[in-house]
Design brief:
alpha+beta, 2 domains, three-stranded antiparallel beta sheet, 8 helices, 5 strands, elongated
């Protein structure tokens, strides 16, 4: 079986000139099976419709039955000189689940035409999977059909629950309330604002406080009338009291 004319010199020269003007086809069709986009057959044909005739080139595609359950799409690139080049694409045309035989044939033909046309003229397109037959061709034998995105997301591991902050004990809460009262916080709003400022985040309830928060507040938020005492200077080291005045003696003159 011949795939080209005895000579293709004129065809090759014309195709080389045409390919200098071809640009990659944008993806304009969506493939929900793979959540991707691809360039459909119409966009591929439109990209070459004005360029190929300019260099006396044309493309024809015919369909040949080869055997039961399969078909062949023949793509022929022709030049006005009579030279030609062809390619053949044999692929299955069997209906799958939910797809009858006629739909399977149409899907297979469209798929083969798109790939055959882009290949023979050298048109740059993104790798695509535009129909069910294309998916079956690229999937290795025995490999399962990829699961839809919704089903795949169900298999993702669930996020770990956040670690619960241990609540303060009753005596810690009481000590906290005493310290707040010492600082003049007489309303709930004032208490929450004072706690938030001390721990560095917004606090809405004492249940959100950890022991580290409790310790930080008790050490930093001292009452205004009780300044912190340095740990290195004991209270007894304050300035000494002045010595008592000496009692006057009889010898001292009376003023």
């Amino acid at each position: 079986m011949e795939f080209m004319s005895p000579t293709i010199g004129n065809l090759a020269a014309a195709l080389a000139q045409a390919q200098q003007e071809l640009v990659p086809v944008a993806r304009n069709a969506a493939n929900p099976a793979f959540n991707s986009k691809y360039a459909d057959l119409s966009s591929c044909l439109a990209a070459c419709r004005s360029i190929l005739p300019k260099y006396k080139l044309s493309v024809s595609q015919v369909i040949e039955p080869v055997q039961e359950g399969k078909l062949c799409v023949v793509t022929i690139l022709m030049h006005e000189s009579g030279e030609w080049l062809s390619s053949r694409c044999v692929l299955p045309a069997e209906g799958g689940r939910g797809v009858n035989a006629a739909q399977a044939v149409g899907s297979a033909i469209t798929y083969a035409r798109r790939y055959g046309f882009a290949a023979i003229v050298g048109l740059g397109t993104d790798d695509d999977d535009g129909n069910a037959s294309g998916e079956a061709l690229r999937r290795p034998h025995g490999q399962d059909r990829p699961q839809p995105a919704a089903a795949a997301s169900c298999a993702e591991p669930r996020p770990r629950p956040q670690r619960q902050i241990p609540r303060l004990t009753s005596w810690q809460v009481k000590a906290l309330m005493v310290r707040l009262a010492q600082r003049g916080m007489d309303t709930k709003e004032k208490c929450l604002e004072d706690l938030s400022a001390a721990v560095g985040r917004r606090i809405h309830s004492s249940r959100e406080l950890s022991y580290d928060d409790f310790k930080a507040y008790m050490n930093k938020a001292l009452p205004p009338e009780r300044p912190a005492v340095s740990a290195t200077v004991p209270p007894a080291a304050c300035a000494p009291c002045p010595p008592p005045a000496a009692k006057p003696s009889a010898a001292d003159p009376v003023q």
